[in-house]
Design brief:
Elements lengths: L14 E4 L2 H12 L2 E8 L2 E9 L2 E7 L24 E4 L3 H10 L3 E8 L5 E6 L5 E5 L11
Parallel strand pairs: 1-4, 5-8
Antiparallel strand pairs: 2-3, 3-4, 6-7, 7-8
Length: about 150
């Protein structure tokens, strides 16, 4: 148990909205290896979904034009593909993950390479334009001062 009383998992969870959330869920599993923990949906509309990776999680849902959150958030395609934040996912075998993502059609935006701060990684975009960083550098286990 951590200092906040949580037993497992991350206490910070990125949340994403997709035009086609069902297709995004399938693609994120196939391309990146996420696992579906929960999906709450009515037909094609995903109200809330939880996908896990190790002890981490993302949440996602269908984009809409109604609701308080929808008035505050835009999708990458609505602002020229730009982002204000992105997810960094720690993987143990970066080269295998890179090959899997490529095979699923991920658009590589920063090619795989060893990083000056340690580890190896790459960046890609998913089908709706969200940017993802996958790398082996684990700041939870890095030596202080690197």
């Amino acid at each position: 148990m951590d200092e906040n009383g949580h037993r497992n998992g991350s206490t910070i969870i990125p949340c994403l909205r997709y035009h086609d959330a069902r297709a995004a869920i399938d693609w994120l599993q196939r391309a990146f290896g996420f696992h579906v923990q929960a999906v709450y949906a009515d037909g094609p509309t995903v109200h809330h979904a939880q996908l896990t990776w190790g002890h981490g999680m993302i949440m996602l849902g269908s984009a809409s034009s109604s609701g308080a959150w929808s008035k505050l958030a835009v999708l990458p395609g609505e602002i020229g593909g730009r982002q204000t934040q992105s997810a960094c996912v720690i993987v143990t075998d970066v080269d295998a993950h890179y090959a899997r993502a490529m095979a699923a059609g991920a658009r590589i935006v920063i090619d795989i390479a060893d990083q000056a701060y340690g580890g190896r990684g790459y960046a890609c975009a998913d089908p709706e334009g969200y940017l993802w960083w996958f790398g082996s550098y684990d700041p939870w286990h890095a030596d202080a001062g690197q």
